[in-house]
Amino acid sequence: MSLLEKHLVNQQMAVERWFREQWQLTPPxxxxxxxxxxxxxxxxxxxxxxxxxxxxxxxPTMMSVYVQSAxxxxxxxxxxxxxxxxxxxxxxxxxxxxxxxxxxxxILIGVGLEVCIGxxxxxxxxxxxxxxxxxxxxxPLIRQGDRVGVEGFYPDCVLLNNDLSLGIPEILQNISxxxxxxxxxxxxxxxxxxxxxxxxxxxxxxxxxxGLDPWLLMPYFDQCPEVDFMKREGQECLVHRxxxxxxxxxxxxxxxxxxxxxxxVVKADQGTYGMAVLMIKEPQELVKLNRKQRTHMSTRKGxxxxxxxxxxxxxxxxxxxxxxxSVAEPVLYLMGRYVLGGFYRVHKNRGPDENLNTPGxxxxxxxxxxxxxxxxxxxxxxxxxxxxxxxEFAAFQGENR
Length: 401
Hints:
Blueprint: H1 3-10, H2 12-25, E1 31-38, E2 43-49, H3 63-77, E3 83-88, H4 95-111, E4 114-119, E5 139-140, E6 142-144, E7 147-149, E8 157-161, E9 178-180, H5 192-210, E10 221-224, H6 235-256, E11 264-268, E12 277-280, H7 291-298, E13 309-313, E14 319-321, E15 326-335, E16 338-347, E17 362-365, H8 375-399
Parallel strand pairs: 3-4, 3-8, 4-5, 8-9
Antiparallel strand pairs: 1-2, 1-15, 6-7, 10-13, 11-12, 11-13, 14-15, 15-16, 16-17
């Protein structure tokens, strides 16, 4: 157990009291997942997904735990909920994504909800064959008046599992049902830089309570609002901001006596799936990007052009797993203010300063049934990230009043 992890465990009473107070001020969103990186000397989120896939990578033997956590979250956030329509991603036929939907549906049915799945753009129902043996029925999404549903099923609440990277579909515009998470949090409007701005504020408050340097729980970051990697537009901004960021990180490394060479991560300010992500050691690398690298950085999910970039302090992942000591990073799943569980994203061909969310990655459930010393610290940082996401939505609401 690292000194950081021990400190958080020793401060558990103050930590949990603070979270209770914060959730009363800013109610949590229905669900999300948080990618963490554990460098030992620091533990920080590097991505917060508000329309999570990957439920199939949770340990199926812990289903009762997932159901209890989901039950508590739904009782607090949607106490009168009895029926729920899930609207999933429609761009993919990936069988593992369907497995994730099936796992999510199983959790929600365990809570006592009647659940159907409405598939955008489908013309007929289908039941894909899943390797797990779970059953999944996908029905065409239909709109009647100001409500959406599937044939004979138009509930009061819609659960989005579609991150809206391609925009808000017309069928979902101006409907009367409650949509969770809200449409405003899709990637059509959401920015990673805005999320990490809220996260920075959350950690500043939290660190005062537990007596920690905020940097130990967050990545420094900056952003460039106008870039075009193919045309090399915004290059000067990227290099300049990267230089300033690297100076800050090197100063912290010197302060804490950290011998590793720091690195930075440049990514699209919108989007998921590990697309448009680049690790660099020196800012001048951004000037020397070859055509393949620029092509990789120029588009995000759905073929959308990258026009904004976030530059983030790279966080090492010094956790390893398995006989090959493969580099691993924890991913935690939450419903409301409760941690459901998580898994390790593992990549045997990547190093501690590389992106693990690439082809060749594998997944290992977090060992809930065995002593897992970092898990409490993981849960703390994941909840900080979800609190920042809740503040994102509160900011959207404030802007639109």
